[in-house]
Amino acid sequence: MWLLIAFVAVPLIEIALFIEVGGAIGLWPTLAIVVLTAVIGTALLRRQGLAELDRLRAALDGHGDPSSPLVHGAMILFAGALLLTPGFFTDAIGFALLLPPVRNFVFARIRERIVIRGARASRAARPDIVEGEYRAIDPEDRGASGWTRH
Length: 150
Prior knowledge:
The protein is mainly α. The protein has one domain (9-116). The protein has helices at 2-25, 27-60, 67-84, 88-97, 100-113.
């Protein structure tokens, strides 16, 4: 439901902002701002993305929890998609996601909603071991097929 609302609301907001900004400063300055924000956003995205990738590598080498760099990297990637989308509203959200305090706030909200449950290992550590019960059957009690009794 929220996704449907976003797909309807975001374009309407963008159109309204284009009309207002274009009416206030004109067509060409409006288009120049949109292109300029995409260029600046791409440069910021590259720099922050590479820094987050370095943090992820360090975490995977045993120097911390990799969840934070993974989530921050995903938010930076999402910010890049928003910055490449033409519009003032998506640019504002994209630039906001490039700010570490905003990403920390979003990550804290995400972390509150995630429940982590531990998994118990089975006694059979090898996949070729099957646990079960058996009962010995006297060969004279078996039927002709060996599976049924008379």
